[in-house]
Input
Amino acid sequence: MYYHFKGKKGLFQAVVENVQESVAREVEKAAMLESNPWKSLVSGSKAFIRVMLSDENQRVLIVDAPTAIGLRLWEEIDDTYSGSYLYDHLKSMSAMGKLTNLSVEALTSMLSGAMDEVVMWVGKRDNKETAITEVGEIIEQMILAFKREVDSCGKKISKLL
Output
């Protein structure tokens, strides 16, 4: 089987890309169910956590990939799939004036890293459903912290999703 790839690393890279693409599809599917961009962002984030809780996804993408294929390549693959969708969504929200004036690139990195850590934390909990609920509430509050509070005319915007 290795002859199709550049050794074991190439084979594992193909596995990482396949799993990452599958996770990204599930996240995008959940996010697209919402027409409100804030709810879409929250739904996609929660879907990421749920999808990543499978032992295979967690082990391949978060535990093994950074070491097996190298941190830089792992980040590139993550950016290509989940990261690019998150970046594009945040960039669109920023262009619509829905985000505070922050670096979309930095915000994407921060949210993506937080999601990876949360997956590991939830994975260690005995009651995963309770942990997912707790994390979901935190995700909503964290994401709302980046919501613009006034429009271009200075009119206050509701903080509610």
Remarks:
- The mean pLDDT is 87.
